[in-house]
Amino acid sequence: MQYGDLQFFDIILFAVIAGFIIYRLRSVLGKRTGFQKDHNQHTPKYKEEETETKTQIPSLLENELKLENVYKKVPSFNHKEFLEGAKKAFEIIISSFNSGDKKTLKNLVSKDVFSAFEKAIDEKANNPSSQFYSLIIESVADAKVNNNIISISINFVSEQMINDDEGKIIKNKDTWTFEKPVNSSSPIWILTQT
């Protein structure tokens, strides 16, 4: 046997070994021709609803449950800040009305409400000697989001004292509606109905 025959024999031997390895790999791994079904089709697909992040609605008191309507459409809404602000706004608006401060009122109420307050002040229907004694939010009467406007109606129970005399306390129940655009970054809510 000559040296050239040995090289030829080695090449044939390596080709047979390579063929055997390819054959074994194919039988173990299989062969993809392009017509097989996609194996991903067999894995269950999750519904989009399940993968969406659901809005976390904080626990609300029974008299605040209507605020869920706002949380469902405006996840960034904060009911505690709103209710605190509503109480402050009530006090400022009533105190401004009682003292006849139209300038302060104008920035906190709608045009219609301002016209009603202005008329009452001009007719001396306000009482400058009245001061706040107590204020509570009895309940949320209504809460909704329509046309990108958040609208919340609050039932207030207030007590006002006349001439710093605790014997002369007047109790009032009022339902006020505050509104604010959804995309507004201002903390101010406008009083639109009394």
Describe this structure in words.
The protein is α+β, with helices and mostly antiparallel strands. The chain has a domain at 63-193: Nuclear Transport Factor 2, Chain: A (Roll), CATH 3.10.450. The chain is 40% helix and 27% strand. The chain contains six helices and four strands; from the N terminus they run H-H-H-H-H-H-E-E-E-E. It has helices at 3-29, 48-51, 68-73, 79-99, 102-108, 111-122; strands at residues 130-146, 149-162, 165-181, 190-193. A four-stranded antiparallel beta sheet has the order 1-2-3-4. Helix 4 (79-99) packs antiparallel against helix 5 (102-108). The longest helix has 27 residues, at 3-29. The N and C termini lie far apart (114 Å). Residues 46-53 have low confidence and may be disordered.
Layout of helices and strands:
Blueprint: H1 3-29, H2 48-51, H3 68-73, H4 79-99, H5 102-108, H6 111-122, E1 130-146, E2 149-162, E3 165-181, E4 190-193
Q: Which characteristics define this entry?
A:
single chain, alpha+beta, Nuclear Transport Factor 2, Chain: A, 4-stranded antiparallel β-sheet, rod-shaped
Number of helices: 6
Mean pLDDT: 83
Oligomer: single chain
Which stretches are low in confidence, meaning pLDDT under 50 for 5 or more residues running?
Answer: 46-53
The description of the largest β-sheet is: 4 strands, antiparallel
Terminal CA distance: 114 Å
**How are strands sequenced across the largest beta sheet?**
1-2-3-4
Structural class, please? alpha+beta
Percent of residues in helices: 25-40%
Number of strands: 4
Order of helices and strands: HHHHHHEEEE
Strand content: 25-35%
Main CATH class of the domain at 63-193: Alpha Beta
